[in-house]
Structure formats: C-alpha cells, structure tokens
C-alpha cells in the first residue's frame, strides 16, 4: 500500500512536471508568436505613418496653393475695382477741363478753384498709377482712337485732341480720341 501511494505520488509529480513543461512550451510559443505579431504590427504602423505623412504634406501643399490663388484673385479684383473707379473719375476730369476752357482767359476766384480741383484730382489719380497717354510721339493705334482727319497735319501725326487718353499701371484705361493727318 505504501508502494502504491509512493507510485501514485510519483505519477502525480510526473504529471505535474509534464504539465509545467507543456505550459512553459505554450508560453514560449506565445512569446514567439507575440514577437512576430508585434514586428508585423510595427511594420504596418510604419507604413501607415508614411501614408499619413504623405497626406499631410499634400494637404499643406494644397493649402499653400489655395492661399496663393486667393491672393491672386484678390489682387485681380482690386485692380478691376480701381480700373472701374478710375474710368468714372475720368468723366469728372473731362468736365473740369471743359469748365476751364469755357472760362477762357478771364481770371476769377471760381476759375482758380476749378483749376485747383482739377490739379488735385489729377494728382490723386497719379498716386494710383493713372497717367495721361503720351501724345508727343505721333499716332499710335494702341493708344489713340482716330475719329477724324485733320487736313492741315502731316500723315501719322496727331492734329487735334478731342478727349485725352489715360493708362492705369501701363494698361490702357481709355484711348485718346484724336484727329490725325492723312
């Protein structure tokens, strides 16, 4: 009986040792699998990080391009508004010049006030790059609009200026209306 008990105890001890060995083998396999899984997961995360970096760089590039486009559009809009405003002011310049011509040689405080207003308006237009079109170099179809013939003037020369022309920042705002020689 004692031998049977010893045998049973040995068998039990051996079973426990086998269980421990099996458990440690399972833990080792799990650890090996876990390391491989972790390495795969790290690789996957690195690829995701590269993708997100590329997306972020693309988003930053698109944002910069959008800002540049908005600035260009704002500048174009500003130029268009200034151009429209300047065209409207040119009618006032023309009216002031007609008033000065109508007064003739008679000096009066009223004429002096009109002349000062005219000068001030031209000065303001020049601040915004609105300048008179050059009339000294003869007729230029890009800058002048021929509306008639001046018989006493040489061919290609400007005779009478009916309405002055103006340019805004180098672009023609309004052509000069002139009579030219034939």
Automatic annotation (TrEMBL):
Residues 22-32 have a biased composition (Low complexity). One of its GO terms (molecular function) is adenyl-nucleotide exchange factor activity. InterPro entries: GrpE, GrpE_CC, GrpE_head. Keywords: Chaperone, Cytoplasm, Stress response. The keyword Cell cycle does not apply. It is found in: Cytoplasm. GO terms for cellular component: cytosol. Participates actively in the response to hyperosmotic and heat shock by preventing the aggregation of stress-denatured proteins, in association with DnaK and GrpE. It is the nucleotide exchange factor for DnaK and may function as a thermosensor. Unfolded proteins bind initially to DnaJ; upon interaction with the DnaJ-bound protein, DnaK hydrolyzes its bound ATP, resulting in the formation of a stable complex. GrpE releases ADP from DnaK; ATP binding to DnaK triggers the release of the substrate protein, thus completing the reaction cycle. Homodimer. This is Protein GrpE. The lineage of its organism: Bacteria, Pseudomonadati, Pseudomonadota, Gammaproteobacteria, Moraxellales. The gene is grpE.
């Amino acid at each position: 009986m004692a031998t049977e008990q010893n045998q049973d105890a040995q068998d039990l001890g051996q079973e426990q040792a086998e269980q421990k060995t099996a458990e440690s083998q399972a833990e080792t396999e799990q650890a090996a699998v876990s390391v491989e899984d972790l390495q795969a997961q790290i690789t996957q995360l690195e690829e995701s990080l590269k993708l997100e970096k590329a997306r972020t760089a693309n988003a930053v590039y698109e944002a910069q391009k959008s800002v540049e486009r908005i600035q260009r559009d704002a500048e174009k809009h500003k130029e268009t508004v200034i151009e429209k405003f300047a065209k409207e002011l040119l009618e006032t310049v023309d009216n002031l010049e007609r008033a000065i011509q109508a007064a003739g040689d008679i000096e009066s405080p009223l004429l002096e006030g009109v002349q000062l207003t005219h000068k001030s308006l031209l000065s303001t237009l020049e601040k915004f790059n609105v300048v008179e079109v050059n009339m000294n170099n003869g007729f230029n179809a890009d800058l002048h609009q021929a509306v008639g013939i001046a018989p006493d003037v040489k061919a290609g020369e400007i005779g009478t200026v009916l309405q002055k022309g103006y340019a805004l920042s180098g672009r023609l705002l309004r052509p000069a209306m002139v009579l030219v020689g034939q």
